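SECTION: protein entry
WANTED: fold as tokens:
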Amino acid sequence: TISKQLRQLEAAFRTPLLRRVGRRVELTEDGQRVFQYAEAIFTIGRELQDAVGRGATGPRPQIVVGVPDVLPKLIAHRLLRPVVCDHPEIRLVCVEARHDDLLTELAVHRLDVVLSDAPASLGVNAPLFSHPLGECGTAFFAEPVLAERLRSGFPESLDGAPMLLPAARTMVRRDLDRWFMTLGLRPRVVAEFEDSALMKVFGQEGAGVFCAPAAIEREIECRYGVRVIGRAGEIVQRFYAITVRRHAQHPAVETICRQSPEFAPKRMGPMVTDAGAAFHSRSEGSRDTQS
């Protein structure tokens, strides 16, 4: 039985691997360590089977990409699709976590590259290089009935409207807050999200307005059944590939860094002019200071 095998394993290691907490059982510290090694062993075993099956001389190469939870998944897909298409021999491994945690993992070479909506921060104790990949404006979305009601008079119609916002620590959130302040808008914040996909699901159900890169507005409309309310070209969303080397050495990382995806949206709606220009000027000044 499984219980007998566990007892035999604990006897072999001369340490308990499981402990009972109330009605449930959890791994001890040694048990967690054994589990991690076992997982690595099984992974190598699967790679061995693949290599022998293909007649290969070694394990299949891979690229480990860090994807921050705040980065729109449709943007990440657009950036990573060439890796899958151009390098079928390379296994793509995506790791999702907080932006700063991913940069720490990158600095100690546990990741090959991190996709980001902001350049590498100065707080990481390692030389990191930010490769610009593209930029676009920002679009605002809502379920069809709410979008129809708010489309007229945009962006003033957002004043008092239910709003779903990215987490406060993100670059786009800081730009949104400055944009609202510049235009004198005070939307009613319903919720804040670190996960951009979860924010879209709430927007799909009518919980409020949400924003996303204008470059993927058609995909968002099709996938979530929402509609564009309006666009703010002055809220510029930029995307980067962050590496530990100035020049990419991994062929798949090089593919990501050298591509020039079409981030300009197919169409741009009405823009805010005077207030938008003032916002754009302040935003650029802030970015120059940060860089």
